[in-house]
């Protein structure tokens, strides 16, 4: 159960600027005051989010333990609820942070500088590599699906994050159609979904697939081959014959 986000909840008080004030300690010998380092609010909040990300990705929302998060952050549990009113709010903030990381990286692709085929292959490579480099992100998304996407659905910030990604794909498709390289009529959301489904599977389903088919999905060679096959598959789907 969460606590209300206020001074009583964390056992601390804020100064007029909204920052936690310095506490001064009297020295026994000289009667002087020595300032105790003030906790940086943004740094503390980010540390909570980073630790909560690992905790929720490993144990889910229901199994995630705020006591464990507090212990790892070396803070009180009440301080967690000073920054985040509830465990659910903390989980939503973790999702926002995780998706923001991916969206920020997508902005650096500069697909507009590439020819349509090269741009599609670059997008595939990025998406595939991101999922493999961030298996905790894949687990977190799977956990949110268990909860029927209710946290993402309630977050306006997460909804807004989607638009630049889809807009980037839409512009790439339009440019490809105009040049005669890509066939018309491809929906950018459908393409985004297909690309992520193909990339997501090899991380989310790796263990069960390997166990059933004795198929290597985790070696550098296997990942490079799978990435190349996805790029070939999508380009053959998109190109104008």
From TrEMBL:
* Keywords from the named record: DNA-binding
Q: Which Pfam families match?
A: TetR_C_29 (PF17938), TetR_N (PF00440)
Query: Where's the DNA-binding part?
Result: 65-84
Which protein are we looking at? Answer: TetR family transcriptional regulator
Enumerate the GO terms in the molecular function aspect. DNA binding
| UniProt organism field | Bradyrhizobium daqingense
Q: Which InterPro entries match?
A: Homeodomain-like_sf (IPR009057), HTH-type_TetR-like_transc_reg (IPR050109), HTH_TetR (IPR001647), NicS_C (IPR041474), Tet_transcr_reg_TetR-rel_C_sf (IPR036271)
Domain HTH tetR-type, first and last residues per copy:
42-102
Q: Where is this region: Disordered?
A: 1-41
């Amino acid at each position: 159960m969460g606590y209300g986000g206020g001074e009583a909840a964390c056992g601390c008080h804020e100064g007029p600027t909204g920052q936690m004030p310095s506490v001064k300690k009297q020295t026994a010998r000289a009667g002087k005051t020595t300032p105790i380092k003030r906790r940086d609010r943004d740094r503390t909040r980010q540390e909570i989010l980073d630790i909560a990300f690992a905790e929720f990705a490993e144990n889910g929302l229901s199994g995630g333990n705020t006591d464990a998060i507090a212990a790892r952050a070396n803070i009180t549990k009440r301080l967690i609820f000073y920054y985040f009113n509830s465990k659910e709010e903390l989980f939503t903030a973790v999702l926002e942070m995780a998706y923001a990381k991916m969206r920020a990286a997508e902005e650096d692709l500069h697909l507009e500088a590439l020819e349509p085929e090269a741009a599609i292959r670059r997008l595939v490579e990025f998406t595939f590599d991101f999922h493999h480099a961030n298996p905790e992100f894949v687990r977190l998304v799977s956990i949110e699906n268990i909860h029927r996407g209710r946290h993402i659905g309630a977050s306006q910030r997460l909804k807004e994050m989607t638009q630049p990604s889809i807009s980037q794909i839409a512009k790439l498709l339009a440019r490809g159609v105009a040049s005669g390289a890509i066939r018309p009529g491809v929906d950018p959301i459908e393409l985004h979904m297909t690309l992520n489904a193909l990339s997501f599977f090899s991380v989310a389903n790796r263990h069960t697939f390997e166990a059933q088919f004795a198929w290597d999905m985790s070696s550098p060679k296997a990942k490079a081959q799978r990435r190349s096959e996805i790029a070939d598959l999508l380009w053959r789907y998109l190109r104008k014959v």
